[in-house]
């Protein structure tokens, strides 16, 4: 019994919100599991992701959630009501990243140093928040790492017979299937896709070509690509009879041309991502390179857009990954033309075409952000804003291939 005048105070202690992310360290194409516990039932919360690029720009994504009757949000099961993504999206905090308000125009998020991870700060905020995250104190936060290189992958610099690139060797005794990886007309050395492919068992060589400011030192001609292919083929950790070509954009056009016309390059398969055979059918590859270095690849492509005369593709497996909203290259028309060519040759069974409606030109590794338009350096003409096309959600789906 209490004495007269004494009040009984009832105190309810609520546990602090608990944020769980698994794994906290993994490959960029590995799904993460995000769960928030110890919230109030039906509590409005915001999940926020922020990343600082190697160029020191900040990228963010966020989703608005309501906890269930147990005070839990499970990102893989619960829908984001609004934010940079909506619906049930386990990886929405990755693929919907965008530059924070006030950032420079035309940014593109690309990993330059594959020996270091992408670092993300994931936080939980009370209420549905859409701006001013840096001024807020989160309920809970964690730091996670996303890697292109798995443990045990070896990175080897290639400086041989005038060829420059990087060879990534998977862990294990080998030898492994080999792949020559080529990027677009922007040139230079781009390693992150090759590093990721090596993390999944392919000896992948990222090839450097059309390097800005070094065109006289690094001439990208037919012989250059054939030599690169031979270097990969002759490496002791590569299976000589299991080689592939993979190219994005202008690199896809090069891959198709090499597979069709080279007497040296005889791959077992060719993967062409947002590429076209159109710029390479009226001129030699050397002449096309000269035009690209002088005028930029986009102008050349559209000169030939409706002048397809076809090309003779060899008997090999060919995969075309086509963006349905490609605003940069005529990839849909090219795919239709190649389909007709393969059918006439009786080789349609060797061709696979995957068209992704709503996807833009830059189809990159899974869960990377969508870039509808970014700054692009045209050889000899400086920087311009290039339109790639696509919408964030269908573009993210296309990257899962």
UniProtKB/TrEMBL annotation:
It comes from the Eukaryota. Residues 29-160 form the Acyl-CoA thioester hydrolase/bile acid-CoA amino acid N-acetyltransferase domain. InterPro entries: AB_hydrolase_fold, Acyl-CoA_thioEstase_long-chain, BAAT_C, Thio_Ohase/aa_AcTrfase, Thio_Ohase/BAAT_N. The keyword NAD does not apply. Keywords: Signal. Residues 1-15 form the signal peptide. GO terms for molecular function: fatty acyl-CoA hydrolase activity. Residues 221-284, 317-399 form the BAAT/Acyl-CoA thioester hydrolase C-terminal domain. The active site is at 249 (charge relay system), 326 (charge relay system), 361 (charge relay system). One of its GO terms (biological process) is fatty acid metabolic process. The keyword Signal applies. Coiled coil: none annotated. It holds the Pfam family BAAT_C. Belongs to the C/M/P thioester hydrolase family. This is Acyl-CoA thioesterase 16. The lineage of its organism: Eukaryota, Metazoa, Chordata, Craniata, Vertebrata.
């Amino acid at each position: 019994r209490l004495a007269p005048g004494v009040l009984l105070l009832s105190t309810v202690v609520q546990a602090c919100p608990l944020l769980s992310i698994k794994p906290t360290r993994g490959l960029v194409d590995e799904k993460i599991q995000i769960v928030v516990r110890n919230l109030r039932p039906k509590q409005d919360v915001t999940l926020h992701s922020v990343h600082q690029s190697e160029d020191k720009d900040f990228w963010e994504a966020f989703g608005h959630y309501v906890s269930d009757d147990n005070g839990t949000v499970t990102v893989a099961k619960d829908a984001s009501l609004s934010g940079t993504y909506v619906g049930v999206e386990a990886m929405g905090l990755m693929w919907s990243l965008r530059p924070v308000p006030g950032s420079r125009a035309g940014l593109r998020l690309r990993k330059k140093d594959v020996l270091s991870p992408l670092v993300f700060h994931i936080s939980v905020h009370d209420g549905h928040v859409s701006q001013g995250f840096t001024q807020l104190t989160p309920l809970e936060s964690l730091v996670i790492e996303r890697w292109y290189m798995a443990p045990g992958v070896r990175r080897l610099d290639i400086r041989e017979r005038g060829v420059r690139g990087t060879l990534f060797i998977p862990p294990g005794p080998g030898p492994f299937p080999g792949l020559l990886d080529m990027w677009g007309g922007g040139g230079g050395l781009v390693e992150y896709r090759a590093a990721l492919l090596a993390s999944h068992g392919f000896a992948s060589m990222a090839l450097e070509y059309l390097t800005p400011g070094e065109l006289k030192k690094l001439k990208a001609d037919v012989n250059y690509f054939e030599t690169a292919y031979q270097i990969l083929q002759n490496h002791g950790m590569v299976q000589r009879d299991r080689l592939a070509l993979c190219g994005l954009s202008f690199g896809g056009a090069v891959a198709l041309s090499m597979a069709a016309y080279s007497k040296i390059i005889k791959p077992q398969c060719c993967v062409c991502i947002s590429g076209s055979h159109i710029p390479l059918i009226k001129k030699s590859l050397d002449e096309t390179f000269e035009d690209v270095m002088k005028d930029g690849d986009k102008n050349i492509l559209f000169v030939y857009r409706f002048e397809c005369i076809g090309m003779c593709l060899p008997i090999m497996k060919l995969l075309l990954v086509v963006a349905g909203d490609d605003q940069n290259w005529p990839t849909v028309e090219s795919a239709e033309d190649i389909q007709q060519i393969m059918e006439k040759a009786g080789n349609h069974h060797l061709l696979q075409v995957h068209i992704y409606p709503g996807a833009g030109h830059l189809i990159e590794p899974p869960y990377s952000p969508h870039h509808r338009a970014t700054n692009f350096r045209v050889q000899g003409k400086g920087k311009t804003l290039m339109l790639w096309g696509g919408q964030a959600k269908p573009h993210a789906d296309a990257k899962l291939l």
